[in-house]
Write a structure and sequence with these properties.
CATH architecture of the largest domain in chain A: 3-Layer(aba) Sandwich
Largest sheet of chain A: 6 strands, antiparallel
Distance between the termini of chain A: 15 Å
Low-confidence stretches of chain B: none
CATH class of the largest domain in chain A: Alpha Beta
Strand order of the largest sheet of chain B: 3-2-1-4-5
Strand content of chain A: 25-35%
Distance between the termini of chain B: 15 Å
Shape of chain B: elongated
CATH superfamily of the largest domain in chain A: Nucleotide-binding domain of ferredoxin-NADP reductase (FNR) module
Strand content of chain B: 25-35%
Shape of chain A: globular
Mean pLDDT of chain A: 94
Oligomer: heterodimer
Helix content of chain A: 10-25%
CATH superfamily of the largest domain in chain B: Nucleotide-binding domain of ferredoxin-NADP reductase (FNR) module
Number of strands of chain A: 16
Number of strands of chain B: 12
CATH topology of the largest domain in chain A: Rossmann fold
Structural class of chain B: alpha/beta
Order of helices and strands of chain B: EHHEHEHEHEEEEEEEE
Chain lengths: ~325, ~200
């Protein structure tokens, strides 16, 4: 309900490697899809045998291609089931609903240079960003680490198109990004973008901050999958309802399932749109988001229902 | 002497904060006039001022009120010290240093708004985020003002209204500020009733 929806049809389903599959969506009525900017994502709605799943995926296609959008989905066998649904059940010709693009990871075009640090499936937003830069012009350099050559999705495409701007690293071959050297040699006015596993993002941001890079020049994106956990009960004060959040359901999904209108954009703890006031609680709020500050989390006055859970007796929300 | 207070008015009016030492491989410190005090106050906050100064490039010029603390700053023993007679003579040095600068450099600007603003503009033009540049206003409050009509810039404006040094119009000094131009905006005060100019008062010293 937060962003207008797009009625699309699946045009292509292409396996990229043993873990990653690419999907291409086109509009059902043939009209062009809205333009977007590099780094944007869409929320894909899945009707998974009675469960509605809504997962954010970065748009990886060229932003100037408004005939269709492409996403790449990494299969997570331990996840809640969204990526498995995409891999097992989505076929060409299927009709689906996705959100309008939203960008929480855009390029700062005032930068003199864009330094991109990538781990694994974190490559997807950079594919649209590099396509945008190829058209608009701009200096950039990419350092892309993958477990091995077979799992380095789109490495061939990137090195083929952009040559030595793209540096590839393979964990199983013992490669490691020489981060200290890399960060020490960037011209003033460089902005850094990092997307990949949680540990890599934390390592890059921490190293850069310690070397004096200002936070305003550091950009990262990590969508958190809502964690599973013990079921819990929540009172929604504004709508006068009491709901139970299931073990594999997020609080946001439970609120929506009760027919209560709640704002959201990314559904991955990054954008801040679903921030909800906590009126009363007896127990522990299990904060999992990137949005609230440590102080806000400690005060327990707010919760991000897209990814955070609760353990205890009573939780009353202003919703 | 401490940070010059700034009345918060409109959003575009720059605000300032005391300089804080931050980690970096190069410390570019640009100051004029009483800004020298802000530099020494900042150094007093670090546990190892010697280490910061060993990787510091300090550029200084006297303030518009004549305050000249060159010798105090020279005596600090920064890796490089450069004294310019004026802001326009200082800026080319800064711009040349920026050509070869790398991320991990810290910027400390201190003194008049004209000095802080013009140094900030030069640094911003590299793509470095403006909000990551530290600025502490000290000393004279005279303003650098752009005439919005002829686009000429008058330095060290003390009175309001004042006469544009380029086109001669009587200008009202706004708090509306341009980071791109590093100047406050001056707007003709008697456009509708030519000649009806209120008496000038000294607002900036």
């Amino acid at each position: 309900m937060s962003v207008a929806k797009l009625q699309v049809r699946v045009e292509e389903v292409v396996p990229v490697n043993e873990l990653i599959t690419r999907f291409r969506f086109v509009s059902r009525n043939g009209a062009p899809l809205p333009a977007f900017s590099g780094g944007a994502h869409t929320v894909v709605e899945m009707e998974d045998h009675g469960t509605r799943r809504m997962n954010p995926y970065s748009l990886m296609s060229d932003p100037s291609d408004t005939r269709g959008y492409e996403i790449s989905v990494r299969r997570d066998d331990q996840g809640r089931g969204g990526s498995l649904f995409m891999h097992r059940h989505v076929r060409p010709g299927m009709e689906m609903v996705i959100s309008n693009p939203v960008n929480l990871f855009g390029l700062d075009t005032r930068a003199k240079k864009h330094l991109m640090i990538v781990g694994g499936i974190g490559i997807t937003p950079f594919l649209s960003q590099t396509a945008q830069l190829a058209r608009q012009g701009g200096q950039w350099e990419m350092h892309y680490a993958a477990r091995n050559r077979a799992l380095g999705a789109y490495m061939d495409r990137l090195t083929g198109a952009y040559g030595d701007r793209v540096h590839c690293y393979f964990d199983e071959e013992g490669d490691k990004i020489d981060l200290a050297r890399l960060l020490a040699t960037q011209p003033i006015g460089t902005h850094l973008y990092v997307c990949g596993p949680k540990g890599m993002i934390a390592w890059v941001l921490k190293t850069a901050a310690a070397m004096g890079w200002p936070p305003q020049a550091l950009h990262s994106e990590e969508f958190i999958a809502p964690p599973t956990g013990a079921p819990f009960e929540v009172q929604l004060a504004a709508s006068g309802k009491t709901i139970t959040v299931g073990p594999a359901q997020s609080l946001l999904e439970a609120i929506e399932a009760a027919g209560v209108d709640a704002p959201y954009l990314c559904r991955g703890g990054a954008c801040g749109q679903c921030e909800t006031n906590v009126l009363r609680h007896e127990g522990e709020i299990l904060h999992a988001d990137h949005w609230l500050t440590d102080e806000e989390k400690a005060s327990n006055c707010k919760i991000m229902p897209c990814v955070s859970r609760f353990a205890g007796k009573t939780l009353v929300l202003d919703r | 002497m401490t940070l010059t207070p700034v009345e918060p008015t409109i959003k575009s009016r720059p605000v300032y904060a005391p300089l804080e030492p931050r980690p970096g491989h190069l410390h570019l410190i640009i100051a004029d006039g009483e800004g020298a005090d802000a530099v020494t106050d900042m150094l007093a906050k670090t546990s190892d001022a010697g280490q910061l100064l060993a990787s510091a490039h300090l550029m200084y010029c006297p303030g518009p009120n004549g305050t000249d603390l060159t010798e105090r700053l020279r005596a600090l023993g920064a890796l490089q010290f450069f004294r310019a007679p004026t802001i326009p003579a200082l800026l080319p040095r800064l711009k040349r240093v920026l050509v070869d600068a790398h991320m991990g450099s810290q910027f400390y600007l201190a003194g008049t708004e004209g000095l802080c603003g013009q140094a900030e503009t030069a640094i911003m033009q590299t793509g470095f985020p403006a909000s990551a540049i530290q600025k502490e206003h000290r000393g004279s409050t005279v303003r650098r003002v752009q005439c919005v009509h002829c686009k000429g810039i008058t330095e060290n404006v003390a009175t309001d209204p004042f006469q544009c040094s380029h086109c001669g119009l009587s200008l009202f000094v706004r708090d509306h500020y341009s980071r791109r131009l590093a100047a406050f905006q001056g707007v003709n005060i008697d456009a509708e009733d030519p000649g009806d100019v209120p008496p000038s008062v000294v607002r900036f010293k």
